[in-house]
C-alpha cells in the first residue's frame, strides 16, 4: 500500500512538472496572444479588409555578441510567440519593420546566410501568408557605414528594395529603407528619391485621372501607409505618452537626427510626396502614437512606433494587429507574456503541485 502511494505521488509529480513545463514554455504564448483580437470599426466590412500583423526589432543575435544560452532562449520565445500569432489570428500579411538581425552589418557572406536561414526557420509562414520586410540599421549599417554589398545582399535575400510600392486588397503601402533618406547624393539616396518621386507621380495621377493618361496608372487611389524603420522627425520621445513609451528621464533625451529619427527635411519630403494616412516604424524599441498635422497640405495622420518583439529589448514585447481597407484602418497593440509572469506562473504551479502531493493520501480520495 505504501509503495502504491509513493508510485502514485511520483507519477503525479512527473505529470505535474511536465504540464508546468508545457504550459510555461509553449501554451502560455497562445493564452496571452488569444487575448488580443483583430480591431474593427463600422467602416470596415468583413472580408474586404487586409489583416496585417506588424512587428519590429527582432534583433537575432549573431556570431559576436551575446551568450549562446541568451541567443537560444530569446529566439525560442520569439518563435513560440510568432507561431501563436500566426496560428490564432491568421493574418493576410506580415510586416517586419527592420533590425531583423543584431549584427547583420558586421557579418561575412556565410554568417549572413546563416542569419537568413535562422530567420526563416524561426518565423516560418504558410504559403498563403506573405511577409514583407524593411531594412534596419543593424541589418545593413547606418548611412555613414553603409557598404554596397551589405545593402545588396539584404535586398536580394528579402526582396526589399530601398523603396517599394505594394497594393494589397486595394490599399497602398510604401516600404522605405530609412538609411536611404539621408538626403545626400549617395547612390542609395538618389535611387530612393527617384523611386519616391515616381510613386508620387503615379499616385497623383490615380487621384486626378482627368489630368493624366490613364494608361500610366493601373490602380485606384487611396492615401498610402508608410512602413519604415526610423520614426519620422521628432526632437525626442517626450510627447509619447503610451504605457510602453520610454521611461523618464530617457523619454526626454534628445534624438540624434538621421540616427534616432529621420531629419526634418526627409520627413517633409516624404509627407509632401506621399501624403500618407498612417506611418508605422520601429527602431526605438518603445511604443509611441503621435498625431501629425500639415495644414498647408490639408492632411493629418497618426504615426505609430511599434515596440520591439524581443525579450532582449523589453520585459514586455509587443506587436500590432492592424485591419486596413482603402478608406480606413484600425489598430490593436498586443502584448506578449512578460518574463516575470512566466517565472512566477511556473513557481506557483510547482508550489501548488507540491502542496497537492503532500496533502493527498491516495488517488481515489
UniProtKB/TrEMBL annotation:
List the Gene Ontology MF annotations in alphabetical order: hydrolase activity; metal ion binding
Q: Which GO terms describe its cellular component?
A: membrane
Matching Gene3D superfamilies: 3.60.21.10
Predominant location of this chain?
membrane
| Calcineurin-like phosphoesterase domain: residues covered | 54-286
The membrane topology of this protein is: Multi-pass membrane protein
What are the BP-aspect GO terms?
Answer: GPI anchor biosynthetic process
Where can this protein be found? Membrane
UniProt xrefs under InterPro entries: Calcineurin-like_PHP, Metallo-depent_PP-like, PGAP5/Cdc1/Ted1
Keywords in alphabetical order, please: Hydrolase, Manganese, Membrane, Metal-binding, Transmembrane, Transmembrane helix
Regions that span the bilayer: 340-359
Q: Which cofactor does it need?
A: Mn(2+)
Q: Which family does it belong to?
A: Belongs to the metallophosphoesterase superfamily. MPPE1 family.
PANTHER family registered for this protein in UniProt: METALLO PHOSPHOESTERASE RELATED, METALLOPHOSPHOESTERASE 1
Q: What is this protein called?
A: Metallophosphoesterase 1-like
* Gene (UniProt): LOC106124036
Amino acid at each position: 500500500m505504501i509503495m502504491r502511494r509513493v508510485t502514485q505521488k511520483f507519477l503525479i509529480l512527473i505529470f505535474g512538472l511536465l504540464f508546468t513545463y508545457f504550459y510555461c514554455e509553449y501554451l502560455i504564448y497562445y493564452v496571452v496572444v488569444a487575448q488580443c483580437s483583430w480591431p474593427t470599426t463600422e467602416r470596415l466590412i468583413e472580408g474586404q479588409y487586409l489583416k496585417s500583423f506588424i512587428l519590429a526589432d527582432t534583433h537575432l543575435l549573431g556570431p559576436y555578441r551575446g551568450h549562446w544560452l541568451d541567443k537560444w532562449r530569446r529566439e525560442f520565445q520569439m518563435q513560440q510567440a510568432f507561431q501563436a500569432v500566426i496560428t490564432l489570428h491568421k493574418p493576410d500579411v506580415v510586416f517586419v519593420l527592420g533590425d531583423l538581425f543584431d549584427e547583420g552589418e558586421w557579418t561575412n557572406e556565410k554568417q549572413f546566410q546563416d542569419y537568413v536561414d535562422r530567420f526563416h526557420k524561426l518565423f516560418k509562414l504558410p504559403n498563403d501568408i506573405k511577409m514583407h520586410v524593411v531594412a534596419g540599421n543593424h541589418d545593413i549599417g547606418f548611412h555613414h557605414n553603409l557598404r554596397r554589398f551589405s545593402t545588396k545582399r539584404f535586398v536580394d535575400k528579402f526582396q526589399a528594395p530601398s523603396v517599394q510600392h505594394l497594393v494589397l486588397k486595394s490599399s497602398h503601402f510604401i516600404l522605405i529603407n530609412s538609411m536611404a533618406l539621408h538626403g545626400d547624393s549617395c547612390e542609395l539616396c538618389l535611387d530612393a528619391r527617384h523611386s519616391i518621386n515616381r510613386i508620387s507621380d503615379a499616385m497623383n495621377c490615380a487621384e486626378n485621372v482627368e489630368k493624366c493618361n490613364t494608361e500610366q496608372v493601373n490602380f485606384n487611389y487611396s492615401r498610402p501607409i508608410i512602413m519604415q524603420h526610423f520614426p519620422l522627425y521628432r526632437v525626442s520621445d517626450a510627447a509619447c505618452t503610451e504605457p510602453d513609451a520610454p521611461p523618464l528621464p530617457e523619454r526626454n533625451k534628445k534624438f540624434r537626427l538621421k540616427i534616432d529619427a529621420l531629419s526634418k527635411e526627409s520627413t517633409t519630403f516624404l509627407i509632401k510626396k506621399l501624403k500618407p494616412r498612417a506611418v508605422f516604424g520601429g527602431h526605438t524599441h518603445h511604443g509611441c502614437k503621435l498625431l501629425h498635422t500639415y495644414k498647408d497640405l490639408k492632411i493629418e495622420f497618426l504615426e505609430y512606433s511599434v515596440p520591439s518583439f524581443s525579450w532582449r529589448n523589453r520585459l514586455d514585447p509587443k506587436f500590432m494587429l492592424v485591419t486596413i481597407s482603402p478608406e480606413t484602418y484600425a489598430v490593436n497593440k498586443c502584448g506578449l507574456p512578460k518574463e516575470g509572469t512566466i517565472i512566477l506562473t511556473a513557481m506557483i504551479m510547482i508550489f501548488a503541485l507540491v502542496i497537492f502531493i503532500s496533502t493527498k493520501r491516495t488517488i481515489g480520495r
